[in-house]
Amino acid sequence: MRDALDNPFSPGSDTIPDVWAGRTEQLSDWRDVVRPRRLAGLPERGRTVLGEPGLGKSALVRRIAQQASRAGDWVTPQLRIPAGADPLKLVAEAVLALAADAGLSTSREKRIGDAIARVQAVALSGVSLTLRGADGREPYAALTELLVEVGVAAIAEGDVVAVIHIDEVQNITDEKALSQLLIALGDALTHEVEVTVPGDARVARSLPIAVYLTGLPDFEDMAGARKGATFARRFKTTTLSAIDDDDLAEALQEFVLEGWEVPDGAGGTARVRMDRDAAALIVDLCRGEPFLFQLAGEQAWYAGGTPTITAAQVRQGWRGAQREATAHVERILERLPARERQLLQVMAELPAAERTATRIAEAMGFAKVTEVGPTAQRLDTVRGIIDRGKPYTFRHRAVEAYLSSDWPRV
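The structure corresponding to this sequence follows.
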């Protein structure tokens, strides 16, 4: 009844888990803001979704892309940027696929054929290509031109949005490549075309194109430093933090109330339930981390074969996952600069009520409280690990638990 084939939990960045928890604000933003405004021809910024590893950035946008595809939109696959790769080549290939979906590859218009040919050259050579032998255009201009054609085709199709998802954007370390990519996407987002409306009037409208960028928090610094206000005008950034316990508990309610439907091995179906203590323990153990939530659920599923998952089985499964949970948090801490790690350690060692800027500055050996400001600001606004209230608090509850308790040990 409970085996690898019917386990609904999936602790992997490249999957959309069957047991979905939270992120309603971001999902509603796509459904109620981005898609309707883009379809209506209204301007709307692209979305940049950032956060520390394990917060479900990629899964979130993959779920948005799944919803878009089911609505009939044209959607690129998740374009993961490996370290050192040329992003223009990868995006060019995806844009060519969108053009094919839009029927542009069979167009006999010379203008469209030339645009496709230029982007095909970019897909082969990437940012190193200089197109000056033909018409003086840089690679980003060729991408923008074909994106515009895709957007125009989407208008003609009606009720269609072209959705582009670029993942691991922090790996774009080449300044020229990043600049050209952001300009190409931004120019397509802000481009307007004239269309005829009832009464034969001509009005300008934006293209039905939506862009999602996902990656680690470092990307905002990279993009902001190199593109400044232009990037901020064209992309709205969200830094994800832990999921509320109530949302996690809600995601497990189907197990508690009705049971999760699985094949019974005899051509029918059965249901796997979870007692309330087991569900509460999973919520407590994962500390709001989507990855750890899926990991705890997965291991609890494998910890027995009975129709009901018990708290004892959750504990048993978690013991097998403790090393992975520890490594997950340690990876987050290891990539932080030394001063940021020091601040987090000091916060964890102070009683919760005493986590003020003054006490933290004293414990870090600073002569002035203002010296702690820049480090705390980055941990708050850029990384989303703490909240600079009065007192300071941890937003990343798994980091807090790791530094201040025996967690993840049961």
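The first strand starts at residue 46 and ends at 50.
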